[in-house]
Amino acid sequence: MDNSKFQFPTIAKWIFSILVIILVVYGIWYFRFLVICFAIAVVLSFMGRPLMKGLERLSYKKLRIGNILASTITLITLIAIIATALYVLVPLIISQAMNFANLDIYQIADYYAEPIGKIELFLHEYKLMPDNTNLETLISNKILDMFKLFQLTDIANIVLSLSGSIIMGTFITLFFAFFLIKDSHLLYNAIVGITPDKYIDEVDRIISNSRNLISRYFIGIFIEIIIMITLLSIGFYLMGFSNFILIASICGVMVILPYIGVIIGGAMGLIITITGFLSTDASLSIAPIVLKFAIVFAIVKLVDDFVLQPLIYSKSVKAHPLEIFVVILMAGEIGGVVGMILAIPTYTFLRIIAKEFFSNWKFVQKITKDI
Fold it and tell me: 96 near 135, Cβ under 8 Å?
C-alpha cells in the first residue's frame, strides 16, 4: 500500500515552515536598520518602565497623571540623560583627539630607544622575533596606524556621511520607544496575535518573566555604569589625571561586557591616560602613571566584582557566574562585541522559553531552577 499521499501534508508543512523561517531571517537582515532601531527602542522602554509605573501611581486628590503625559515625561527623561552624557563627553573626546594629533611619536621613540633596544635584543636572542625586524620601527608604525583612527578629519567625515542615517534612526527609535512605553501591552499583543491558542499560557508566562528579568538587568547595568564612572572619576581625579571624566566613562561603559570588558576598557583607558601626559611632555616616565592607573582601576574593579556584579547579574538574571562567563565567550565568537552585549539578555530569554517548553529535561531544570 502506498502511503506517500498521507505523508505529503507533513512534508509540505515542514517545507512551508522552513520557507517561513528563511523569509523571516531574510526580512530581518533586509530591514536590519529598522530592526536595530526597534531593538534600541525596546531597551529604552524596559529602562523607562519603572519610571512610567511610578508616574502613573502619582495622584493629587482626584488628579492623576495620564498615560500619554507619563509616557512623554519618561521618554524626555531618557533623552535628557543621553543628551547630558553626549554634552559632557563629546568635547572631551575632541580634546583627546587633539592630544593624539599633537603627539610626537618619533620623539617618544627616541626617548625610549634604549629600553626598546634591550627588549629587541632579548627577542632576537631567543628567536621570538625575526632578525630582520626592528622593534622600534614596528612599534612606531603600529601606533601611527592606531592614531589614524583618531584623526579629526576622518571622524568628521564619518559623522557627516552618517548624519542622515543617525537623524532618521534617532527619530524612528524615539517614535518606537514612545509607543512601547505608552502601551506596555503593544509588544505583548503582537506576539500573542501570532501564537497558536494552545501555547497562549506558556507564551504569556514567557513574556511576563522576560519583561521583569530583562528590565531589571538593563536598569542594573545602567546603575552599575553610573557607580563605576563615579568611583573611577574620583580616583583618577585624586591621582591628578587631567581627562579623568573621559577615562572613567570609557572604563565604566565597558562593564556592559562582563569579564572581557575589564581588559578592553582598561587598555583603552590606559592608552588615553598615557597619551594625555606624553602630549605635554614626551620625556615623561610612564611607569608612575601606569602604577597610579592600575591602583585606581584595580580597587574599583574589585568593588565591581565583589559587590556590584553579584548583585546585578546573579540577582537580575538569576544565573550562575560561570554560566554567564561561558555564554559571553560563545556570544563573542559568534557576534563579536555586539554579541557580547546581547549575550546575557538573549540567554535569559532563551532560558525562560526552555523552562516553559522543555521543563521535563534535566539540563533545563538545572539552568532554570531559580527563574
Answer: no
- Looking at residue 164, its pLDDT comes to 73
Question: How many separate domains does the chain show?
Answer: 1
> Grid coordinates standing for 367?
539552568
Q: Is residue 367 part of a domain?
A: yes
SS3 per residue for 329-348: HHHHHHHHHHHHHHHHHHHH
Helices (H) and strands (E) in the chain, counts: 16, 2
- What would the pLDDT profile of 203-250 be if each residue is shown by its tens digit? 787 777 777 777 777 788 888 888 999 999 999 999 988 888 889 998
What is the model's pLDDT at position 237? 92
- Using CA atoms, how far apart are residues 121 and 116, in angstroms rounded to an integer? 9
Q: What band does 80 get if pLDDT is binned at 50, 70 and 90?
A: very high
- Give the DSSP per-residue string, 51-111: HHHHHHH-EETTEE--HHHHHHHHHHHHHHHHHHHHHHHHHHHHHHHHHHHH--HHHHHHH
On whether the CB atoms of residues 289 and 305 are closer than 8 A, the answer is no
Q: Using CA atoms, how far apart are residues 104 and 91, in angstroms rounded to an integer? A: 22
> Which residues span the domain enclosing 201?
196-371
Contact 75, 178 (CB under 8 A): yes
In this predicted model, which residue has the larger pLDDT, 89 or 131? 89
For residue 10 the three cell numbers come to: 507533513
User: How far is 187 from 176, CA to CA, in rounded Å?
Assistant: 11
Sign of the alpha-carbon dihedral angle for 128, 134, 139, 141? negative
248 domain-assigned = yes
Report yes or no: 251 and 266 within 8 Å, Cβ to Cβ: yes
CA distance 305 to 280: 35
For residue 259, tell me if it sits in a domain. Answer: yes
In angstroms, what CA-CA distances link 118 with 50, 64, 123? 59, 74, 9
Residue 34 lies in a domain: no
